[in-house]
Amino acid sequence: MWTSIDESISKDGKASILFPLQKCLFTFLSKSIVGADPASYSPKLAQSGSIMLDKWLALQLLPSIHINAFQPLVEIFLHSFSYPFWLVKGDYEQLTDFIAQEGTEVIQWAETEFGLSRETTIHNLLFILGFNAYGGLSVFLPILINILGTDSSGLQDRLREEVLEKCGSNIPSFKTVQDMPLVKSFVYETLRLNPPVPLQYGRARKDFLLKSHDAAFEVKRGELLCGYQKLAMMDPKVFYDPETFHPDRFVGEKGQVLLNYLYWSNGPQTGEPSPSNKQCPGMKSVILTACLLVAHLFQRYDCLKIDSSGSMVAAEKAKPFDSLSFSSMYEN
């Protein structure tokens, strides 16, 4: 991904982040969720799999995406009906065939351990990979990179120091990024102000009182509720200076307590996903994947710059790592 971005900057003076990132995500998620490499199935799928997922996602999301212009035509022609499946049927069948052929181990595990049918497993794996993981990370990770590339507070220097201290020249892993408190806090703070899925809906299963700091609201069974996470994450009684981005907000003991109030995945960051709470089942892997991206970035670059259109326009390659000189600098 970074090589592709470097080549674009050298050629055109800038590079789009989204499409190289999505191509990377398709391969990464296929390997981590399905246990399969798209390139071993088909070089064509490795190149175009992310585009197939984009089209499939667009077909599902377009009827509900807010578009401010061309009203009321948008409501009449885009938001009034669901779109026919045949528009993406060929792509969808290629993706399910890829999972069926290359994901035999995880399919057998689902059949043996959970009693799921082969067909149900294949379609659920594609939905988790394409809608939940790929769709969510395609929204969140560009925001993360954009915040880094437009920051002028010295955040890049602080993150790079922590990454090099913990990893040196070794390849970052899910294990090593767990020991990077500032990197994790930066990811948490980005999620606080930019939740990938800001609106959550649900029907009340029973009568109950919904309590805030100074009021209570009666909710009746069957009533439809909508939660706007971004608004909840700006509660001044919980978060100091809530509308300002503080990358180290979740560092230290006080920061760990705040994780009880960090709702970006339909539940607190300290909670555990279950079928009853509908919390993001991949919440932990989302955090670690984002931290991994930051760690890789600062092993490759000393700094980067993003323009107003969201394109990377400059990236200073990292100097060769010297563990002895870095150790002396860090102690000083």
Automatic annotation (TrEMBL):
SUPFAM superfamilies (UniProt xref): Cytochrome P450
The protein's name: Cytochrome P450
UniProt binding sites for heme: C280
Record bears the keyword Iron: yes
Gene Ontology MF term list: heme binding; iron ion binding; monooxygenase activity; oxidoreductase activity, acting on paired donors, with incorporation or reduction of molecular oxygen
Essential cofactor(s): heme
Coiled-coil portions: none
Cited PANTHER family: CYTOCHROME P450 26, INACTIVE LINOLENATE HYDROPEROXIDE LYASE-RELATED
Annotated transmembrane regions: 125-148
Keyword Amino-acid biosynthesis on entry: no
Biological process terms in GO annotation: sterol metabolic process
Keyword entries, A-Z: Heme, Iron, Membrane, Metal-binding, Transmembrane, Transmembrane helix
Taxonomic superkingdom: Eukaryota
